[in-house]
Automatic annotation (TrEMBL):
Keyword Signal tagged: yes
Biological role stated in the UniProt entry: Is involved in generating a small heat-stable compound (Nod), an acylated oligomer of N-acetylglucosamine, that stimulates mitosis in various plant protoplasts.
UniProt xrefs under Pfam families: Polysacc_deac_1
Protein name: Chitooligosaccharide deacetylase
Taxonomic superkingdom: Bacteria
Native organism: Sphingomonas sediminicola
Main location: secreted
InterPro entries, alphabetized: Glyco_hydro/deAcase_b/a-brl (IPR011330), NODB_dom (IPR002509), Polysacch_Deacetylase (IPR051398)
Localisation: Secreted
Protein family according to the UniProt entry: Belongs to the polysaccharide deacetylase family.
Lineage: Bacteria, Pseudomonadati, Pseudomonadota, Alphaproteobacteria, Sphingomonadales
PROSITE patterns: NODB (PS51677)
Length: 239
C-alpha cells in the first residue's frame, strides 16, 4: 500500500485544515503499529512495490515549524512542505482565498531553512497561489519559475515536487508542470497505484484520517472502500 498524506496546520483549532498535535502523535504510532513506514517522496514514488506513506504539508503554515517539526524530528521522519514563495513570512489571505477560510500565519525563510536542516524538503506551490487554469502558458511557467528560483536561491535546493494550487489543473497546466517536476500533486482523494500519472498524483487528506483504528487498517479493503466513498461524495460536491 502506497499513499501520500496531506496536512495543512498542526494545531487544536476546529476545521478541516487543522490536525491536532496529539492526533499526529497517535497517527504516527498507528502507522508504526501497522508496519507502514514514513518514506520521503523519492523512495515512495520510485518503487511501485514500496509499502508506506509520505507526509506532505501544504502552504507552509507556521505550525509546521512550531509543532510538526519537533514531533517528526524526534522520530527522525521525513516530510515535504509545499510553499507559496511570495507569501513566505505572511499569511494565507492571498487573492482568491475564500472569506470563510481560517487565517494562518506562514513560515518565514529562516523557519523554512530550519525545517530543511531538520530533514524536511521544501517543494513548490507556485509564487502566488493562483488558479493556473486561468493563466496563459507564459504566466503558468513564470509562476513556477519564480517559485523554483526563490527556493533555490534561499535554501540552496531546487524543488523536485509541486502541488497544484486549490488542486486545480487541466491538460495544459499538467504539460507545463511535467517539464519541471518529478511529480505534481492534486487534491484527488486516493491511494497511489502503478497507474498514477506523475503529473497528477493523488493524496489522502488527513481530515479523513483522524481515527488511529482507521489508520492501522489503512491498507485493508474496508479502508479503500471508505476512501472511494468519500472521493465520490467530494466529486458530487464539486471538490
Amino acid at each position: 500500500m502506497r499513499a501520500v498524506l496531506t496536512f495543512h496546520s498542526i494545531d487544536d483549532l476546529p476545521g478541516p485544515l487543522s490536525y491536532s498535535p496529539a492526533g499526529l502523535e497517535r497517527m504516527l504510532d498507528a502507522l508504526d503499529e501497522a508496519r507502514l513506514p514514513v518514506l520521503d517522496l523519492d523512495e515512495l514514488l520510485a518503487d511501485p512495490d514500496a509499502n508506506g506513506v509520505a507526509l506532505t504539508f501544504d502552504d507552509g503554515i507556521s505550525t509546521v515549524f512550531k509543532t510538526a517539526m519537533p514531533i517528526l524530528a524526534e522520530r527522525k521522519l521525513p516530510a515535504h512542505v509545499f510553499v507559496i514563495t511570495n507569501w513566505v513570512g505572511g499569511d494565507n489571505r492571498w487573492p482568491g482565498q475564500p472569506d470563510r477560510a481560517t487565517p494562518f500565519n506562514l513560515m518565514d525563510w529562516s523557519q523554512l531553512e530550519a525545517i530543511q536542516s531538520g530533514g524536511f524538503r521544501i517543494e513548490a506551490h507556485t509564487a502566488s497561489h493562483p488558479d493556473l487554469r486561468k493563466l496563459t502558458d507564459a504566466q503558468i511557467d513564470a509562476e513556477m519559475e519564480e517559485a523554483d528560483s526563490a527556493i533555490e536561491s534561499r535554501l540552496g535546493r531546487c524543488p523536485r515536487y509541486f502541488a497544484y494550487p486549490y488542486g486545480y489543473y487541466d491538460g495544459r497546466v499538467r504539460a507545463i508542470a511535467s517539464k519541471r517536476y518529478r511529480g505534481s500533486f492534486t487534491t484527488k482523494l486516493d491511494y497511489l497505484d502503478p497507474r498514477s500519472a506523475a503529473d497528477a498524483l493523488p493524496r489522502l487528506d488527513t481530515h479523513y484520517l483522524r481515527s488511529p483504528t482507521f489508520v492501522r487498517a489503512l491498507a485493508g479493503g474496508p479502508a479503500h472502500a471508505y476512501i472511494a466513498l468519500r472521493r465520490a461524495l467530494r466529486r458530487l460536491r464539486g471538490y
